[in-house]
Amino acid sequence: MTQYLDFEKPLAEIEGKAEELRALARANEEMDVADEAAALDTKAAQLLEDLYKDLTPWRKCQVARHPERPHCRDYIDALFTEYTPLAGDRNFADDHAVMGGLARFNDQPVMVIGHEKGSDTKSRIERNFGMARPEGYRKAIRLMQMADKFGLPVVTLVDTPGAYPGKGAEERGQSEAIARATEACLQIRVPLISVVIGEGGSGGAVAFATANRVAMLEHSIYSVISPEGCASILWKDAEKMREAAEALRLTAQNLKELGVADTIIPEPKGGAHRDRPETIAAVGAAIETLLKELDGKDGDALVQDRRKKFLDMGSKGLAA
Q1: Distance, C-alpha 39 to centroid of its chain
Q2: Which of 110, 111, 208, 261 could disulfide-link 156, Cβ–Cβ 3.0 to 4.6 Å?
């Protein structure tokens, strides 16, 4: 059953009425509701198009956080073969908010790493809602260094509200772990592709997305802080998150203008959760294209390409 966002309530009513008519027809075969249901379907399709034609930044935040969007595990299961998960940071523990391991993408050996939010209450708690602890970032560093050693391209899938801010995480060096992961991204001499598949929050996302090429799904977001957090700091009122979302310029379209994102991956009408297979296929096609762009570049060229990308970041938007 589809979960509707706040701004989709009119759509929920129309689609609900159409489903009610079909349920009545199934219960009473003599009823003919095909025309009425078809008319409601047409109205719903037009409303869906109108709603998603020009989403505000805050509405994009809501879509990016939709619980039915494909998550990291869904992409790995669909796009990668021979996936062999690797666990632990060889120091403290295994962080289930970060998953990664060796795999093949289009029969090419790669290292895939990503944030996993979970898909139901039990898995969300186990995955800590995609908020990694220091051991998660240290696991990612270990996997990136392993990929570098064996000459494997790295693909990261970003979907996190941000790094976990708990007391234990801070005691174990959360900020240092994030900084080391960002440093590892800059130093590895293999292609690094990052895809923001949902929410890219703060340093927790940067630690995975300091890449040669950054792709973002059309309705994903990527920012230094959540709109609610920004509103709490600037206005002392989390309810001003709509104004904060506008000011943060966190949409894929904003970030493409600023040079933060290189590619925007189109989503199905109504968001990634409306057609998960189509979304996953589009992400796979984007990864394939970006890997081909970097194919043949030596380690020095890849490192310089990555560093230049981040040194130039924002200049395009400022010049405009």
Answers
A1: 35
A2: 208
